[in-house]
Amino acid sequence: MDNNDKDWTLIxxxxxxxxxxxxxxxxxxxxxxxxxIKRDFVTFYKQTILGPLWFIIxxxxxxxxxxxxxxxxxxxxTDGIPMLLFYTAGIINWTYFADCLSKTGGTFTGNAGIFGKxxxxxxxxxxxxxxxxxxxxxxxxMVFIVMxxxxxxxxxxxxxxxxxxxxxxxxxxMALISLGFGVWISxxxxxxxxxxFVLPFFVxxxxxxxxxxxxxxxxxxxxxIFMLLNPVAPVIEIFRYAYLGAGEVNxxxxxxxxxxxxxxxxxxxxxxxxTEKTFMDTV
Length: 283
Fold this sequence. Notes:
Mean pLDDT: 81
Strand content: under 5%
Radius of gyration: 21 Å
Structural class: mainly alpha
Number of helices: 12
């Protein structure tokens, strides 16, 4: 190390380990992450009449539409659960994952102007996206709880069980899934910009491959394993089982989901760190 290095508070060096998360640097830049979170919220509220009420309206409106179209018209069963509760339980969890994935997938292309001007840990951007979406999830989760209480008041028998204590863990796990797939997509998008157009379509198709609008029990047993290769599927099933008493909690399926998630996450971090070195040469 050069003797002059001791005069500096921060020394920026090339990253040798592609699997490095640089958590120390991310912690040092926590104020920047806080600023990004605030920016996301201000951007969402700006020039809107209802502001944060949209966080409440979205799951209620979507749940009502799903209940009308898929529950009433298509008559897709909901395992004996009131349709509005069934669909809202899936919607709030899927919305969090899809929101994180969409934001993280555009990390490099959406922040090229900032990346080209100043140094900071690039993972600070997807991390801030995930945290800001958690605030939205918390609001929509409370909407679900209020709705649940209303149904109980009207005579619905409470069906929640001890698995509800794992709700924060499910949220963190969804964050890891979205981070893994998101950094993969953001890395590939720097070279192939077509993914900017493919991502919204891909997310929409992914929802139909997830038990959001139908129970997993509707899928024949011999084909269910293919559905459970989707790492988001066990999360929604566990959430429904915890709060509504209907869903499938299978340890083998959970282990498959965890294996896929961490494989994608670790490989995504490698791709992200590799792309970070050359990104500004391609814009």
